[in-house]
Amino acid sequence: MQIAVQDWMRSPGVIAVFDALSDGVTRFVGGCVRDSILGRPIRDIDIATDLEPKSVMAHAGQAGIKAVPTGIEHGTVTLVAKGTPVEVTTLRRDVETDGRRAVVAFTRDWREDAMRRDFTMNALSMDPDGTIHDYFGGIEDARAGRVRFVGAAEMRIREDVLRILRFFRFHAFYGKDDPDAEGYAACVKLAHLLPSLSGERIRQELLRLLEADDPLPALEMMSDAGIWPEIGIAAVDLAALAAFIRLEGGATDPITRLAALLAPDADTGEIASKLRLSGREATLLRNIRKLAQDNPPAPGEIGRYLYRNGAEMSWGAGHLAIARGIDAKSWEAVVAVAEEWQPKTFPLRGRDLLDAGMAPGAEVGALLGSIENWWIDQGFEPDLAACLDHAQSLMPKT
């Protein structure tokens, strides 16, 4: 099969990389090929070559292309040509696997390299002229929305247990109708191996899955397959997430969706730790869920609420509360303000009070807090001069 050459394939950076590696056989691989066939936007450009990594770096250097050895021990080098990053990986075959990582050896056999990829739709490769090489029926599977393992599903999962989560993630983005029967059965059978994965790897797959336009069918399959307890999540609330997605208006933030997915009584801190969420992610997850369980602010206090909690948390908490059927009218008012909210910055600092003649001490912080509350009550409008005038009226006379 051959497709028409697309704009991304003839960008100056891509052409420069292929020219630099012309001593070997080089093709596009993976997602950019799959998504080109399906007419989807191209996110990343990945290339495979039969040149070994040191040769790739040498050829890049000769062509004046920046080469970054991002994963050279696994055969991967990132070339940055004319501002375009292109990941170049030498053809490989698995020598040894342990369910988490593989020891690889380089090869010059394209079919052998394709055999180590997880799904048929990801095992495609494409020449610069648009000629596609399909060893396992990946084109048909991609068009049919069928996520199918390359080879025996159970064997491929035992090589890398993460493929269970990848199976559901790819179904969320590319699947149609029921999942591939062999693949799904293997995921169910081997789900007990998931605890061997690191929290970081689980986090990456789960958050990516939650970015899908409609992740619910895949998440329901995960529930039926008994996946959740194996990755440290005791229970989920798919009904709340379904309602949340209807409310979010096209946003697909994975952390806010995770907040809705977790059952109301879930231990948010424990799950955040298990998934190795970043500090920001853990705080957002925890606070959205906590705020959604609290009473909404009174109409006159919505501005103060947004200022204290931020628009993102307030928006997420409001939608989550509504999704759970809690005081929808009050929370809708919060969400409406949050969607138009511009961050406010209190203009006064403790140093300003000291410069105005106030003696150092605990009273400075107390007065600063009092003035901040006054500033909020005034609709965040008083500027620094007005805040200082108000401070002077409150400062103890000497």
From TrEMBL:
SUPFAM superfamilies membership: Nucleotidyltransferase, Poly A polymerase C-terminal region-like
Keywords attached to this entry: Magnesium, Metal-binding, Nucleotide-binding, Nucleotidyltransferase, RNA-binding, Transferase, tRNA processing
Protein name (database record): CCA tRNA nucleotidyltransferase
InterPro entries, A to Z: Bact_CCA-adding_enz_type3_sf, NT_sf, PolA_pol_head_dom, PolyA_RNA-bd
GO molecular function: metal ion binding; nucleotide binding; nucleotidyltransferase activity; tRNA binding
Domain tRNA nucleotidyltransferase/poly(A) polymerase RNA and SrmB- binding: 184-228
UniProt signal peptide: none
Domain Poly A polymerase head: from-to ranges: 27-148
Entry keyword Disulfide bond: no
PANTHER family: CCA TRNA NUCLEOTIDYLTRANSFERASE 1, MITOCHONDRIAL
